[in-house]
Amino acid sequence: MYHKQANKTAIQSQHMIADALFSLMKRKPFQQITITEICEEAAIGRKTFYRNFELKEDVVDFWLDLRCAEYEQDFLCVPLEEKLYYHCVFLKKHTAELITLYHNGMHPMIEKKFSVFLPGTMPIWSEDPVEQEYRSQYIIAGIDAIIRIWVTRGFQESIEEIVAIVNRAHQQQVPLMK
Q1: Is the distance from CB of 49 to CB of 35 less than 8 angstroms?
Q2: Cβ atoms 53, 62 nearer than 8 A
Q3: pTM for the whole thing?
Q4: Which residue in 64, 145, 159, 161 could disulfide with 113, CB within 3.0 to 4.6 Å?
């Protein structure tokens, strides 16, 4: 768990630590990175690290929470038919970090964070909360799978190509059971 900070200097330290971790992950697997290395890369002391984070995984959690807040700021205002496009634009903006996380085997952490966050951004399809939850998770799981492929392929396809692929798949959807 990381400590949510209000102090400007502490917030700056958290960002420096996150930047340092991502910089190190480009050169070395996450599991081999030590907190000492993160502190050296960030040019901060270990006490500063531990005032803000308990574990190095907390640094990734902090970064993901920042992305969720950034995402939420604009995403809720986007019309339903444009949400997938915006989602792709948002992810493309963070290409380097997402590829780094995926290459370090951290995609379960990303998927977990977004599976908790994204249902609150979904439209209301049903008054039944159980159906609403199932439908939201169905959509989120599909989008997660597509994003996982896109990220693993290094964002080779354009945003427009991804949106077109998803739209074609949605239009050709057939019932799973009769």
Answers
A1: yes
A2: yes
A3: 0.84
A4: 64
